């Protein structure tokens, strides 16, 4: 797999793997299935694995530790802190205080079974805690050798600039896809100016851009998309119409809609790194194969014109969830 750089510090395969769904949010989980998918990802050249301490209340990091054994020096591990939840409860608070930064990092290191975290993100920022305090504490982790590179998730361009002035930020992780292009307005330009990589989560629109989600009823009862606005009645039908435009080009190119969507993201620049999530080998292999799909400039433009910023019906999250983005 071709390599891409994160903040001038890490070199990883251009398509990574988001591991969240292996622990919760997207229906039933199966550790054996997930571990097999992780091993297959490694075989295919995936070297960028993304997790967080809140995924499964620590379960995801512990699961990843089982996969990392024996290959730690050949992969990059990214994890996050800041969202504090009780197991099985979506209610949450954001803690990005200096004291919590140190506490959370030590807990993640223990669960992951590693001595150093390659990329450590503030999962969300608490506006009541100055980002300078948070990043200052994260910088101390770098000095201590516990973390290699720093990241922020779902921040505004202004917050990124303030943070970057304290310590170089290697990556901003935000939702970015043909379906969600908010970052193009201010965050992505700021990243490019500062030399910060953009790690794109939900690059397949939480499955919507694959063309396989056609109703909420097909989703498991504990799948969070059942309450996500873009999958609500009315919005879902309108969004499925948008996906037909992606499927049409995919049919012409002889690949899947999901592969076209990932290829479009890769074409947005060398510092864009998509991390499609899956717990199944079938979809993993399909996603990784997107790296072989090269779009022409005309195709990139046609896709962008077909799904312009703001085209998707409905917000990304519930009203409560939206409070934590672009802060």
UniProtKB/TrEMBL annotation:
Residue ranges constituting the NADP-dependent oxidoreductase domain according to the UniProt record: 14-303
Entry's Gene Ontology molecular function annotations: oxidoreductase activity
UniProt GO cellular component terms: cytoplasm
Oxidoreductase recorded as keyword: yes
Recorded superkingdom: Bacteria
InterPro entries assigned: AKR (IPR020471), Aldo-Keto_reductase (IPR050791), NAD(P)_OxRdtase_dom_sf (IPR036812), NADP_OxRdtase_dom (IPR023210)
Signal peptide span: none
Keywords for the protein's UniProt record, in alphabetical order: Oxidoreductase
CDD domains assigned: AKR_AKR13A_13D (cd19076)
UniProt-listed SUPFAM superfamilies: NAD(P)-linked oxidoreductase
Keyword Plastid: no
Protein name per Swiss-Prot or TrEMBL: Aldo/keto reductase
